[in-house]
């Protein structure tokens, strides 16, 4: 699925600044769809004790048929730690993924946006949340 990298339907702090925060965020968010959502609620999930939220979010994503909405470029928020050796070859480390999905309610209720993050950034968590 090819990402849409422009005209994000989100409002960012510093939006009036030309080339400021908005341009930076456009580079950090890959938008895959522009669904028309009805008063969406958002469920955010990161790993934690027992990975309960990740298990529940992944179950909902599969069971209800959520569709891919967007993902966040991880290299700005996460630093690669360690190395990966596979079959005696050093491979590039994998960054954690942070993805958004959406589900449209077939009835009159609210739609849902689901965020699943593989890891929580150590130093840039506030920036990621904004």
Structural notes for this entry:
This protein is α+β, with helices and mostly antiparallel strands. The protein has one domain (37-129): Rossmann fold (3-Layer(aba) Sandwich), CATH 3.40.50.10900. The protein contains three helices and seven strands; from the N terminus they run αββαβββββα. The chain has helices spanning 21-28, 52-64, 125-129; strands at residues 29-31, 41-45, 67-72, 84-86, 89-91, 98-103, 112-117. A five-stranded mixed sheet has the order 1-3-6-7-2. The chain has a two-stranded antiparallel ribbon with strand order 4-5. It is globular. The two termini are 25 Å apart. It comes from marine sediment metagenome. It holds the Pfam family PAC2. This is Proteasome assembly chaperone 2.
Structural class given helices, strands, pairing?
alpha+beta
CATH architecture: 3-Layer(aba) Sandwich
Computed Rg: 17 Å
Q: How many individual domains?
A: 1
Order of helices and strands: HEEHEEEEEH
Looking at the structure, the CATH topology is: Rossmann fold
- Strand tally is 7
InterPro entries: Proteasome_assmbl_chaperone_2, PSMG2_sf
Pfam family, one: PAC2
Protein name: Proteasome assembly chaperone 2
Organism: marine sediment metagenome
């Amino acid at each position: 699925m090819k990402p849409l990298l422009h005209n994000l339907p989100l409002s960012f702090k510093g939006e009036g600044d030309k080339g400021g925060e908005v341009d930076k965020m456009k580079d950090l968010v890959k938008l895959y769809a522009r669904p028309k959502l009805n008063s969406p609620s958002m469920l955010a999930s990161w790993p934690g004790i027992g990975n309960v939220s990740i298990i529940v979010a992944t179950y909902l994503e599969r069971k209800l048929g959520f569709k891919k909405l967007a993902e966040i470029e991880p290299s700005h928020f996460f630093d690669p730690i360690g190395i990966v050796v596979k079959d005696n070859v050093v491979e590039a480390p994998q960054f954690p993924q942070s993805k958004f999905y959406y589900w449209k309610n077939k009835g009159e209720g609210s739609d849902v946006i689901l965020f699943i993050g593989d890891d929580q950034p150590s130093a840039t968590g506030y920036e990621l949340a904004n």
